[in-house]
Amino acid sequence: MRNFSLSLIFLWIFSSSIGYAQTGSSEIKEDFKPSSKNQPGKEYPQVNSQGYARFRVEAPQADSVRVSLGLGGRGGTKLTKNEEGVWTGTTEGPMDEGFHYYHLTIDGGVFNDPGAMNYYGSTRWESGIEIPAHDQDFYALKQVPHGNVQQILFPSPSTNTSRRAFVYTPPGYSKESSERYPVLYLQHGWGEDETAWSNQGHANLIMDNLIAEGKIEPFLIVMTYGMTNEIKFGGLRDFKVDAFQTVLVDELVPYVDANFRTKADREHRAMAGLSMGGMETHSITLNKPDVFSRYALLSGGIYTPEELKASSKPELIFISAGSKENPDRVKNAVSALKEAGFNAVSYVSEGTAHEFQTWRRSLYTLAPILFSDK
Predict the structure, then answer these.
(1) What is the pLDDT of residue 7?
(2) Alpha helix segments (H runs only) across 251-348
(3) Torsion angle of alpha carbons 245, 251, 253, 254, nearest 10°?
(4) Homologous superfamily of 24-132 in CATH?
(5) How far apart are CA 126 and CA 51, in angstroms?
(6) pTM for the whole structure
(7) Hey, which CATH number is domain 138-370, 3.30.70.660, 3.40.50.1820, 1.20.1250.20, 3.40.50.2000?
(8) pLDDT tens track for 290-306
């Protein structure tokens, strides 16, 4: 797979997806507040200023309740039952800032927490919890002009069906009838789908805020399902990108160019992906260098100068990871690319692992330079 280390992605996921933070204090502050990802009116789960999470589940007939956090539900917090049949418990340590998946295991059965909203991850709808981040302002919902995220259904002859994608158009797109925009094709990770970057990643809010602050020239973002979840996690090394490459390059890109006001050329077209979506980005950009000119791998491997020699030279290569993943590999890869004459940029998200806070920050860092001429 052209020197792409998919095994590194497995290492990142298994070693860091739970996302517990380091702390020097064992005393838990009792300043818990409802998570921002709770169902309307629900008080639990709660989080405190240190990043601890507290759960409350009403299950009077149950014999055991555990909260499983992280990709695939690894790690766990055992809850304790009181006389009223209410189970409560607090994580053993603080969690990394940002978004985390979780579910409940009640007497061996897997359930979502009725107090939390659901997000598609780990090939199912999981409960979500948000640990407030010190830098959460860049993806906060603010009183600024907002773009639109719309669902499209595009024909896919290769799969004999209509497929779904979501398209972010910037503020003012519908009012301006002549301006054309660059396009970023942005892929999710394994176990997720085309809803992830909007729901978990807040890509639209990141863009809205950057545009309002005058930090970027607007562009479109297209998010579609990467056809990864039919492969069980343990078999991802055998994933073949060919079918998705056909859907993306031969079907979706032409549809978007025909139905949206795009700058329909290689110079104004980019592809990026997180984790497994980074693997897809890596493969497709090398296979189709005439389609995309700007590449970004977010916790999704690296490029080497050798594998890029036979391709049309990209305008930008962006590679990122969390500081709890393998930041040295990212930095070393970018240094090698720069020495070989490529315009390459590295980014490391401090204090995060293989999780959405890493990828939110990565998109925030990538967006201003993605289509910049500077």
Answers:
(1) 46
(2) 253-259, 276-287, 305-308, 327-339
(3) 150
(4) Immunoglobulins (2.60.40.10)
(5) 20
(6) 0.93
(7) 3.40.50.1820
(8) 999 999 999 999 999 99
